[in-house]
Amino acid sequence: MLALTLKPLPLDSGAIEEQATFGILTVRANGRCLTEGVAPDASELLPGPRVSGYDIAEWLAWNRWRLLWEARPGEYSGHEWAFSHCLSSIGGGYVWPNIEISSDGVRAVVTSAPTIDRAPGLYRYVGAPTFEVISATELEVAIGDFVRSTLALLERAKVADTNLHRIWCDLERQQEDADASRLRRLEARLGQDPDEIAASQLRPVMDEAGVLGIDAVEELAADAGARRTTAVLSTKELIDTAHTAGWDARPQDAAELRANDHTPAFGEVAAWRLGGAAAQALRRQEALDGQPIDNIRLSVLAGTQATALMGGDMRPSPLSFVLAANGHTWVALRSKWETGRRFDLARLLGDRLLGHHGQLLPATRAYTYRQKAQRAFAAELLCPYDAVCEFLGRDRSEERCDEAARHFNVSPLAISSLLLNNDGLDTAASGGAPLPRPIW
Question: In terms of pTM, does the model score above 0.85?
Answer without folding.
Answer: yes
